[in-house]
Amino acid sequence: MQINADLHIHSKYSMATSQRMELQVIAGEARKKGVHIVGSGDCLHPLWRRELERLNSEDDLLVLDDTYFIPTVEVEDRNRVHHLLIVPSLSKADELYERFKTHSENIDEDGRPSVNLSGEEIAEIARDSESLIGPAHAFTPWTSIYAYHNSLSECYSDLTDYISFVELGLSADTAYADRISELHRLTFLTNSDAHSPWPNKLAREFTRFEVESITFEELKKAIFRGDGRRPTLNIGFFPEEGKYNESACIRCFKHYTLREAVRMSWRCVCGGRIKKGVRDRVEELADTTEHPDHRPPYLHIFPLSEIITMALGHSSQNTKTVQRAWNELVEAFGSEVKVLVDIDLERIDFVDERIVEAIRAFREKRVILHPGGGGKYGWIELPKRMARRGGGQASLSDF
Length: 399
Prior knowledge:
399 residues, 16% strand, 8-stranded mixed sheet, TIM Barrel, alpha/beta, disordered C terminus, 3-stranded antiparallel sheet
């Protein structure tokens, strides 16, 4: 069976997170989106863990209205690098809490705690609890492994071989990450890191897996690509949309090539600082152009409401026209993911044809990209009529 998984979100107990990040709301929105299993996020936070404990349990996973939750948590190490842990059960989450709490000042206050440990020490604790671990949003210019380290082994040392996945994050895709050969053995996860439950945030990136059932062990086999279980598709944003995709000045946003930035000692002609972009950071680390045979396709897509907004030339996805079209499509085909990824577009004959052609343009990689940089988001145009996305860069919020 094929399942869609978004394994990295946050609860209302994380900083800068919507108070609507509650289990009932998340479960309902996941069903509309078309996601079968959601990372609980924040499973070390005592209050959130107490709410998770009230859910029904099936093979150590938690179930609410046909949505499965698996315990997960993002932790920040002493070097500000973030790590994602996928935990077998709530009892194992209790073990992690006991191990981490003596090294953290905010574990009871913030769903994404900071711990005064190295990446290697965090990986050791994850291993002892039988949790899976990998770097979270590995290529963002802040709080990521490649922002502070040049290799996995610099971060995880003797525990490097225990690392089982890399979360690409909104700043990178397969084409970026596979330029680094040390990542070839690892499964790539695409997750939303959502701080609100709405369809343009929850599962804006997700991973599709082939499994036999929805359990931790089946998910683990899929991440390790064993016994026929495997990831079959990564779905996510274009890296060019990110606000640090290309190297650019943080004051005037002028873009520079890596060679130009180095020659100018990372100082813009206006006097501002040039911030190194993700694309150039990957170029620094790149040592191959090959892709491993096990790597599934990567589909670049966009939240359906934002595609509709762009296609119709509206300024906001909250207009009645956009919302009506979204509801019609989701009700007709069962979920947003089916509309974006799966159904034959010839079946859509009841909404404005511009919407259908916009979805087709994304599927066929015919959209026009204007890369971001220096803290300013990139933006997208549709082919031919070049209709700019409604709301421009502002619709991609910080996370």
